[in-house]
Design brief:
Number of helices: 18
Largest sheet: 9 strands, antiparallel
Shape: globular
Strand content: 15-25%
Radius of gyration: 27 Å
Distance between the termini: 17 Å
Number of strands: 31
Strand order of the largest sheet: 1-9-10-11-12-19-16-15-14
Length: 784
């Protein structure tokens, strides 16, 4: 997308300089706005044309059946799909009775800009109607980070060269028609008219519609209020029906005169509260918004983002395209979680219906890793949501004949929704991923109250799962058999190295937490004896190793499988899951996404530097990156073992995953895990940051194309700024007391006085090969 001529590169914004309807679906996702509670796709103000209309509330879903040709024990019987809720973005314009529609008349000028510093999507249009009257339209839209329930829109229109009758129709529309589903199984299931009307109310131009879902029995309210500024004889009329609320503004404008509309939207939902209570909640939010006014709402939004960038910004010198990409990425990551507050972080955020709006393991493994060091409060909220669904996770474990808790592979509310049982049932690593996020959050924040109130219970229940799922063999080794690791092309394998190492850390962390919080642990039924059994299992954990090849097999026996015939795999047969049967993928050496290599990253404390290099070299020619989650991980480890230019290429792939629509599905929403992965590639990759066992260390190195890297993190109440050039790194605290960090094995005290350390040269290695046709694009000559 960004190499399209309509999309110039800018370090702080994403702009579209003219409208190309061929990429409208993608721009609806890229320019989407959210705060983690409300999400709005970037559909045009006038509503049409559109490709995927979308307005979402986090965790507001409908239940749908999951049909099976052959059912089996433990298969989920129902799925959950995010609902396109009442659309309040629509403002229709009529000029002398001609509806403003970009498909008709003449579109003289069209620009949209998403500013990452203000959080405002601005649209500027000059349009000539079929009758020859030209008008200028300027709209601004934001989803508030400060007022969680609020959306604010500024809309103004002025004739250019004619006197015209102008009509604005500001609407609330429920049950918008959605496009037909596509065959790709990753696309969302479509729901037809999912909202049942319960209440509609109009008073003094303020309109509220209340609806409920038919099966999940969730209730939502959407309301709108307006401030109109126009000529003296401007007329305003409001009306409300079950699925439609409309405010109509009519006036006559001379050239250069403006009609301005400030539209305030508010949303709320609940599984328990009455229609009247939700109506009143939305009324209150609208009253507050009206009192603050547009200017104050924008000022608060800017202040929120100033604070965010002050603790989270990453500066890259030498690649303007990646500079834009990493800020675009972190803006969307923030949008996915900032005000989620006790809800999940979906894989697409709230930017589209992809994956049915579900959350997966990548929320903890990728998104929360980035947020832990930039927006830790959002991490606490997300992990508290995981604790809230523990009763459902325990029920799932009982159904599977296991102990502890089994978190769902994909879900909205907490029930397992995966119809593909090798992932839904066997991808147990998600439990260790969630536990790992809890441990990392505690180390990075010193938030002992979180561990006491939520983290402890998660750690105990996940440790119990591993103790029952695994077993000691005749040699005393602790084995975890028949599981699926991150690589879904290798399902139901024994002793997946990633799974075993993460389970090991999970059990040790749980045992340590039980010791720290013995009284609370006792209330959860856990004591020293059970903790000792976790330590025993962790100490005996079996980690397979191929002595002949001197590498770790991804899972036991993996290195003995036949290597996939990449040479004769057509380029259009990727992603492979859409062209080959799983049984064949599962019995060959082909890797969908980084698996063993992800273990090198998250459990790097287990491997020697030589093992990391050998393992990376072995898995590069096997990894096809059919997942958006792979490139960022490969970037991090490529940087660590010395392939800096390869790491740079992989970072580019992660950064442009959505901006270039590399997987051809950004129409369904952006890839939140890959977006977080851009930050990881920069900070964990070229910044060399690691956090094993709560010890913060850095081993930074830059590729030749980058001249400078500066990043900021928050850590235990401090704000740390790290600057990296080719031969040295500088560490300085911008807030907080002095702290110790490790730089290439040397302990360094960091304070408000900058300290600069030398960077040793990278080892010289020959760049490894990838499967034919699957090498990342070389960054080449870059636009600054």
């Amino acid at each position: 997308m960004i190499d399209h001529p309509a999309f110039p590169i800018h370090p702080w914004r994403l702009s579209e300089t003219y409208l190309d309807r061929d990429v409208m679906a993608q721009t609806e996702s890229l320019f989407a706005l959210s705060n983690g509670h409300i999400g709005l796709r970037a559909n045009l103000d006038e509503g049409e044309p559109n490709v995927v209309p979308g307005s979402y509330l986090n965790s507001f879903y409908e239940v749908r059946p999951l049909p099976y040709a052959e059912a089996g024990y433990g298969y989920p019987e129902a799925g959950q799909t995010v609902v396109n809720v009442t659309n309040g973005k629509i403002i229709r314009l009529l000029v002398d009775d001609e509806p403003f529609d970009v498909r008709y008349g003449a579109l003289r000028f069209h620009r949209r800009t998403l500013d990452f510093r203000t959080g405002i999507l601005t649209r500027e249009v000059e349009w000539e109607s079929p009758t020859g009257c030209a008008v200028r339209v300027r709209s601004q839209r934001l989803v508030s980070f400060v007022q969680r329930a609020l959306v604010a829109i500024h809309y103004e229109v002025e004739p250019v060269d004619c006197t015209a009758d102008i009509v604005l129709q500001s609407e609330l529309v429920a049950n918008e028609p959605l496009p037909p589903s596509v065959l790709d199984p990753r696309a969302a299931a479509m729901l037809t008219a999912p909202l049942a009307a319960e209440l509609h109310d109009q008073s003094d131009g303020r309109i509220v519609l209340v609806h409920s879902t038919k099966a999940s029995m969730l209730r939502m309210a959407a309301g709108m209020d307006h401030i109109v500024d126009g000529p003296e004889k401007t007329q305003v009329h409001a009306e409300a029906a079950e699925d439609l609320g409309r405010l109509t503004v009519a006036t006559r404008l001379e050239p250069g005169k403006k009609l301005t509309l400030h539209k305030m939207l508010a949303y709320g939902w609940s599984s328990e509260r009455s229609a009247q209570a939700l109506r009143d909640q939305v009324d209150g939010a609208l009253a507050s918004a009206r009192w603050h006014g547009w200017e104050a709402i924008c000022k608060d939004q800017k202040a929120y983002l100033d604070d965010f960038w002050g603790r989270a910004d990453v500066e890259l010198e030498g690649d303007g395209e990646l500079q834009q990409a990493i800020r675009f990425a972190m803006f969307h990551v923030l949008q996915s979680a900032a005000r989620a507050e006790g809800r999940a972080i979906p894989a697409k955020g709230l930017t589209g219906p992809g994956y049915d709006g579900h959350t997966f393991w990548d929320a903890e493994t990728f998104v929360l890793r980035a947020l832990t060091y930039t927006t830790p409060a959002a991490v606490r909220d997300a992990l508290t949501w995981r604790q809230s669904i523990l009763p459902l996770a325990r029920d799932r474990a009982r159904l599977l004949g296991l102990g502890g808790a089994t978190f769902p592979w994909r879900t909205i509310r907490g029930e397992e929704c995966s119809g593909y049982w090798p992932a839904g049932t066997a991808a147990f690593h998600i439990n260790a991923d969630i536990a790992d996020a809890c441990v990392r959050y505690r180390f990075a924040t010193d938030d002992e109250s979180f561990e006491h109130d939520a983290g402890l219970e998660i750690l105990i229940e996940t440790a119990r799962l591993w103790r029952v799922l695994g077993h000691h063999d005749l040699e005393g080794k602790f084995r975890i058999d028949g599981v699926t690791g991150p690589d879904e092309y290798s399902a139901l394998k024994d002793n997946n190295v990633y799974t075993n190492l993460m389970a090991q850390r999970n059990m040790l962390a749980a045992a340590d937490a039980v010791e720290r919080h013995s009284i609370q642990a006792a209330k959860l039924g856990a004591g020293a004896e059970e903790a000792a059994s976790w330590r025993d299992a962790a100490a005996a954990m079996h980690i397979p190793y191929d002595e002949a090849l001197d590498v770790h097999p991804q899972a036991e026996g993996f290195t003995r499988y036949q290597v996939w015939d990449f040479e004769h795999t057509p380029p259009d047969h990727y992603p492979m899951l859409l062209h080959y049967p799983y049984f064949d993928l599962n019995r060959k050496q082909v890797v969908k996404q980084a698996d063993l290599v992800l273990a090198l990253e998250l459990r790097g404390d287990y491997f020697t530097s030589q093992e990391k290099a050998r393992n990376f070299d072995y898995y590069e020619p096997l990894t096809v990156r059919d997942s958006s989650l792979s490139a960022c991980t490969q970037a991090v480890i490529a940087a660590e073992v010395g392939y800096l230019d390869l790491a740079y290429d992989y970072m580019g792939e992660a950064g442009l995953m959505d901006l270039h629509d590399l997987e051809h599905n950004v129409r369904d929403g952006v890839h939140m895990g890959s977006l977080a992965g851009v930050w990881l590639a920069a900070v964990w990759g070229f910044g060399g940051m690691r956090d094993h066992d709560g010890k913060l260390s850095f081993a930074p190195r830059l590729p030749a194309a980058l001249e400078n890297l500066v990043f900021r993190i928050t850590y235990r109440g401090r704000r740390l700024r790290v600057g990296v050039v080719h031969h040295e790194a500088t560490y300085v605290l911008t807030e907080g007391l002095p702290m110790e960090v490790n730089h290439y094995g040397e302990e360094v005290t960091v304070s408000i006085e900058a300290v600069t350390m030398p960077i040793p040269p990278a080892p010289k290695r020959e760049r490894p090969l990838q499967p034919p046709g699957r090498a990342p694009t070389r960054r080449g000559v870059l636009r600054l």
